[in-house]
């Protein structure tokens, strides 16, 4: 089970943006690879701290996490194959001058003053996927056709002669305080360390070609409209040999249901009944996302009555609970009556049984609304 982001950064859920940044910097410096060479546990804690900071430092992501937990970011930065390069590219400026910067963790080189091997990550792709309410309740796997760029099979690359494969050029300046080295991105290869040698067949000027790929996307139960899922490494590849593909970002688009309205994890259903059914009571069949159910209406049921069917709503992304189906009873008043029917109601108009007599059990409109949201 994934650790809580607030726990990872050792902060409270009411922490300010400044406190979150300070806490992340503390954890990042504590577990930084320069201070813990070869320590896999420190490396994992370093990545977890970055994952937590990425979510909590963003106001929208933090609000989503507070409501839905880790499920809202399934396949996110920490769990989606994020590399040390990702972390240093995004948050390296937070470390200040304490470390020399990333130079290829895990087989790409060392830390400290060694030569830096840069990397290139391909562009992310973004698609919108429509899901029905039934699919949201059950969870679903969808297979989506995506057009993405990949390197041509016969495309070859060679080491950049300007930076000798390091991706950076270093300049030295003599100052009153000593020799200062400044590293900048190589202008020849753009930081890749490689340049194209020979283009493959049917490729563009960068040796890339577009292919169509069918990608399975697991959509967890309980997702909401606008939530973004990430499929790691299924975006465009980068036009260099040693590179990391971008990600496929999947934006959920919830289709409107014809009879059920969603509100968070709860569903709402408007049940219209006739005046005789309200007086005499009735048994009615209503639709839920898992099939039809039959409910019993007692005699003398009032318009505006709210019935709650437990666990007939939407599963929560944040925990293992399920919302309810809230049935709103509406007594329908006919507009066109025959003379006989009108005469009946005229006779009953002054009848004592037809005079409104709400008792203490009959809740007001505002009490019903309060009860519904409690």
TrEMBL record:
It is found in: Cytoplasm. InterPro entries: DnaJ, DnaJ_C, DnaJ_domain, DnaJ_domain_CS, HSP40/DnaJ_pept-bd, HSP_DnaJ_Cys-rich_dom, HSP_DnaJ_Cys-rich_dom_sf, J_dom_sf. Gene3D superfamilies: DnaJ domain, Heat shock protein DnaJ, cysteine-rich domain, Urease metallochaperone UreE, N-terminal domain. PROSITE patterns: DNAJ_1, DNAJ_2, ZF_CR. Its main location: cytoplasm. A zinc finger (CR-type) spans 128-214. The keyword Zinc applies. Keywords: Chaperone, Cytoplasm, DNA replication, Metal-binding, Repeat, Stress response, Zinc, Zinc-finger. The J domain is necessary and sufficient to stimulate DnaK ATPase activity. Zinc center 1 plays an important role in the autonomous, DnaK-independent chaperone activity of DnaJ. Zinc center 2 is essential for interaction with DnaK and for DnaJ activity. Residues 4-69 form the J domain. Zn(2+) binds at residues 160, 163, 186, 189. Belongs to the DnaJ family. Binds 2 Zn(2+) ions per monomer. Participates actively in the response to hyperosmotic and heat shock by preventing the aggregation of stress-denatured proteins and by disaggregating proteins, also in an autonomous, DnaK-independent fashion. Unfolded proteins bind initially to DnaJ; upon interaction with the DnaJ-bound protein, DnaK hydrolyzes its bound ATP, resulting in the formation of a stable complex. GrpE releases ADP from DnaK; ATP binding to DnaK triggers the release of the substrate protein, thus completing the reaction cycle. This is Chaperone protein DnaJ. It comes from Capnocytophaga bilenii.
């Amino acid at each position: 089970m994934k650790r809580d982001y607030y726990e990872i950064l050792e902060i409270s859920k009411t922490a300010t943006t400044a406190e979150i940044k300070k806490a992340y910097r503390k954890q990042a410096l504590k577990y930084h690879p320069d201070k813990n060479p070869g320590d896999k546990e420190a490396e994992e804690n370093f990545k977890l701290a970055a994952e937590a900071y990425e979510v909590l430092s963003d106001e929208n992501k933090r609000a989503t996490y507070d409501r839905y937990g880790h499920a809202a970011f399934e396949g996110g930065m920490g769990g989606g194959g994020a590399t040390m390069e990702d972390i240093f590219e995004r948050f390296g400026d937070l470390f200040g001058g304490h470390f020399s910067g990333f130079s290829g963790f895990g087989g790409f080189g060392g830390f400290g003053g060694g030569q830096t091997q840069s990397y290139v990550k391909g562009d992310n792709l973004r698609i919108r996927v429509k899901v029905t309410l039934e699919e949201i309740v059950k969870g679903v796997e969808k297979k989506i056709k995506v057009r993405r760029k990949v390197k041509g099979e016969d495309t070859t690359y060679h080491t950049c002669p300007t930076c000798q494969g390091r991706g950076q050029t270093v300049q030295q300046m003599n100052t009153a305080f000593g020799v200062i080295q400044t590293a900048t991105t190589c202008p020849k290869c753009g930081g890749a360390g490689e340049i194209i040698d020979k283009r493959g067949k049917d490729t563009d000027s960068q040796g890339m070609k577009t292919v169509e790929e069918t990608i399975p996307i697991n959509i967890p139960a309980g997702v909401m409209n606008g939530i973004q899922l990430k499929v790691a490494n299924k975006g465009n590849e980068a036009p260099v040999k040693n590179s990391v593909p971008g990600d496929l970002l999947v934006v959920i688009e919830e289709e409107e249901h014809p009879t059920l309205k969603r509100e968070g994890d709860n569903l709402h259903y408007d049940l219209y009944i006739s005046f005789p059914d309200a007086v005499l009571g009735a048994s009615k069949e209503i639709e839920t996302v898992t099939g039809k159910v039959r409910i019993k209406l007692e005699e003398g049921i009032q318009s505006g009555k709210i019935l709650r069917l437990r666990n007939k709503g939407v599963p929560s992304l944040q925990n293992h609970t399920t919302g309810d189906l809230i049935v709103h009873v509406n007594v329908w008043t006919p507009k066109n009556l025959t003379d006989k029917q009108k005469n009946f109601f005229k006779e009953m108009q002054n009848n004592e049984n037809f005079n409104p007599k709400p008792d203490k059990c009959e809740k007001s409109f505002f009490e019903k609304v309060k009860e519904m949201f409690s």
